[in-house]
Amino acid sequence: MSESSMPSPAESPVEAPTSGWQTVVHNDPVNLMTYVQWVFESYFGMDPGTAFKKMMQVHHDGRAVVSAGQREQMEKDAQALHAYGLWATIEELR
Question: Which superkingdom heads the taxonomic lineage of this protein's source (predicted)?
Fold first, then answer.
């Protein structure tokens, strides 16, 4: 490629920023479903219907996304869920 045909820095492709992160709660054989629902209501402020649906998603699908946003906040959410005894991870949205 000749120097004249090379894109200028302003024209160079820029890697698109990631869409963010999400916190995922995974099913475990220890916690009662009612407890998991209570955690969702208490920590995330979910209404009982939403918390029940998320809990059932964890129970049936083995996982559910419970929050999404910036990485630092998702790490805080996962740590808080660990403190409640739940298994949670964060994942980058792509």
Answer: Bacteria
CATH of the domain spanning 21-92? 3.30.1390.10
82: left (phi over 0), alpha (psi -120 to 50) or beta: alpha
Query: What tokens does 79 get?
Result: 């740590």
Going from N- to C-terminal start, the domains of the chain cover: 21-92
Specify whether the CB–CB gap between 64 and 74 falls below 8 A.
no
Integer Cα distance of 56 and 65 in angstroms: 12
CA angle 9/15/18 to nearest 5° reads 150
**pTM for this prediction:** 0.78
DSSP codes, 13-70: --PPPP-EEEEEEE--SSS-HHHHHHHHHHHH---HHHHHHHHHHHHHHSEEEEEEE-
Residue 9 has pLDDT above 80, yes or no: no
Task: Count CB-CB contacts under 10 A for residue 77.
Answer: 22
